[in-house]
Amino acid sequence: MGFRLWSFVLKFGNIFASTSLASIQYNKCKNVCNIIISIVLAVGGVLGLTIKKFYSEFNTTRRICSVVGDALLYCISFYFIIVLNFWKKHLWTSLYEGLKRTAKLSCVETTKSKIPFYCGFIIMNCGHFTVHALVLYYRRDNLGVHLLKEGVFYIEAYFDFCYKFLLCVILNMLLTRYRALNNLLQVYTKTKTDRKFSKHFLNQVEYIMGSLRKTVDVFNDMFGWPVLFMTFYTVPSVLNLINLIFFSAETYGPLEVKWIGGLLAAWFFFGVIILIIMYDRVIREAENVVTGSYELKFFMKTTGWNDLKTEESVRFLMKNSPKFTAANFFEIGRWTILSLFETIIAFTIPMIQFETVTQ
Question: pTM of the predicted model, to two decimals?
């Protein structure tokens, strides 16, 4: 199911022959289209800013948040469109082969689900378009002035949504492999009633864990920077919407402002939090593998050299546990959610105080 969903998300971009989603399919990328898309998004964003003076109507705080947010959103699209298809194009093959190899080694079960594999993608698309359709409805009287800039924003926002979904699909594939490895350990302890030492089984577990770590390293190399941009983008986008709720009631009605700000803030948070939770689930499942190796150590009847081998095996599994980083700046886990909340709250308080004084 994992490879089918991954293939479906990539093939979905082929419906739009010149979109970035079509270009990230590692075996059918079109370099010319990638460059054209990147230039069109950049030129459209710049023209939308300069011709209509898009930021001139904003207060200082919202102007800064908008500029930073738009720059980060473009960086996400630029990385997927250009970097992953020119400088890091070969990593798509490495990632695919790593996931395929570890699936065979860890004996991942391919169960048939009653629900079609593409339903999740369709449901999330419905949620995305529903939220943005409601926002467009409330802003319908102000779209004509900045149509070009708004159009570029909504295209990049949809690309960002699809990239996050693709990352969640790949992380779920890694999760199933660590879960299958954990099941191998549990089945072994339940079926081996004689409790004899098995060097072959320990070597098999070490090899699978090492292969998964190499796959995770490839994943970090490919997606470390866009995940960093996605995480950073959450802060200015939410601060911008908070500023919209409290200090922009003169443009829209107070109730409409709360609807716009609340919907977009909740959707931005939802996407990033789901992505971080998927990272954390993979880490927790790998920790269960290490815990299972400890139980296996006490389960096997070992003496002398065999006991030393089990000790080395446990240390090897701990050393090769997955570590997800955002371009090696910081590690990603459940704690990242608290860091986001902390950062947003830390900026929100002085922002409100500053805007209250200046008004």
Answer: 0.84
